[in-house]
Write a structure and sequence with these properties.
Order of helices and strands: HHH
Distance between the termini: 41 Å
Strand content: under 5%
Structural class: mainly alpha
Largest sheet: none
Helix content: 40-55%
Radius of gyration: 18 Å
Length: 87
């Protein structure tokens, strides 16, 4: 459980994004979301020391998805391509 002060800070951030609207009212294709995504990526890179030649991916699915991705990343690149009917 996060400390109460951090939960309050997160709550305030949800209600006031870019000083204008709630986050849920912004399009995932809009400039506000782009800025949020860029800031999140920069924070992840700084915190974890991720160099620019590595991609940062924000994925849903939790640990179950990550466990299935490990063996998939060990496959040769041509084996990871979707068959023509699945593209």
């Amino acid at each position: 459980m996060l400390p109460s002060r951090w939960l309050r800070k997160a709550q305030e951030a949800i209600w006031n994004v870019a000083g204008v609207h709630r986050i849920m009212e912004h399009s995932h294709r809009g400039k506000v979301f782009d800025r949020i995504l860029d800031e999140a990526e920069a924070a992840c890179r700084a915190l974890a020391g991720i160099p620019d030649d590595y991609a940062v991916l924000f994925l849903q699915g939790g640990a179950s998805l990550q466990f299935s991705m490990v063996p998939m990343n060990l496959l040769p690149a041509d084996a990871r391509r979707l068959p023509p009917h699945r593209r």
